[in-house]
């Protein structure tokens, strides 16, 4: 897991991890996966 509890500061100071999560979830404008369990 990348984040347990996310706040705005996590997104600001760990933008690279947030981008990685978004890249895994969205590709070509389509949502690929929403269940990260």
UniProtKB/TrEMBL annotation:
GO cellular component, one term: endomembrane system
Residue runs in coiled coils: none
AP complex mu/sigma subunit domain sequence ranges: 1-35
Source domain of life: Eukaryota
A Pfam cross-reference name: Clat_adaptor_s
Subcellular location: Endomembrane system
SUPFAM superfamilies, sorted: SNARE-like
Major subcellular site: membrane
InterPro entries: AP_complex_ssu, AP_mu_sigma_su, Longin-like_dom_sf
Gene Ontology BP annotations: protein transport
Keywords, comma-separated and alphabetical: Membrane, Protein transport, Transport
Record family assignment: Belongs to the adaptor complexes small subunit family.
Protein name: Orange
Natural source organism: Papilio dardanus polytrophus
Name of the gene encoding the protein in the UniProt record: or
